[in-house]
Write a structure and sequence with these properties.
Radius of gyration: 21 Å
Oligomer: single chain
Strand content: over 45%
Order of helices and strands: HEEEEEEEEEEEEE
Structural class: alpha+beta
Shape: elongated
Largest sheet: 7 strands, antiparallel
Length: 171
């Protein structure tokens, strides 16, 4: 009888732990997306980086259709974001820049966190990345933009995830 009670207690405890862990995972907001294919972009203007593959999207707040993360209802708080953008065929007489574009709904303003900038290289490959911790409110969104002067260029897409974007709700 004692052994049966212990086994039943252990089974009940294991079930409660699994429910708690599943509930906590479902309550989390986190995503990671990357470019698996090159993206050709016309020169001068900033363009949204088109992410083609989602590695994970807990909370479904990253929208692959518009390449943006939008803070879901009830999930305002402190978020960590990381992004990198790498270019192919970036000529030495061109200048590149990449940034996170953040739309603050409460102030109806657009803000930026720069990922990097510089000139093309002899090899034609260049890029940069950065991280940011931002307080975001419901409906705020954030995405990645890139631009280059003088020439049409390609954003590098590959399985090595050189061009990637990720974020998570810290608290």
């Amino acid at each position: 009888v004692v052994q049966g009670s212990i086994n039943q207690y252990a089974a009940n405890f294991e079930g409660r732990v699994r429910q708690t862990v599943a509930s906590e995972i479902n309550d989390k907001i986190a995503f990671h997306a990357y470019k698996s294919e090159n993206q050709e972009i016309a020169n001068i203007a900033y363009n949204n980086v088109d992410f083609t593959t989602i590695t994970y999207n807990h909370g479904n707040a990253f929208d692959i259709a518009n390449d943006r993360f939008t803070v879901p209802d009830g999930k305002q708080g402190l978020y960590f974001f990381s992004a990198s953008v790498f270019f192919r065929e970036a000529r030495t007489d061109s200048r590149w820049i990449a940034r996170l574009e953040w739309r603050d709904v409460s102030t109806n303003s657009t803000k930026y966190v720069y990922l990097g900038g510089g000139h093309g290289t002899q090899s034609g490959s260049t890029g940069g990345g950065n991280s940011a911790v931002l307080y975001l409110e419901e409906g705020d969104w954030i995405g990645v933009e890139a631009g280059m002067t003088k020439f049409t260029y390609k954003i590098n897409g590959s399985s090595t995830m050189l061009t990637q974007f990720s974020g998570a709700l810290i608290y």
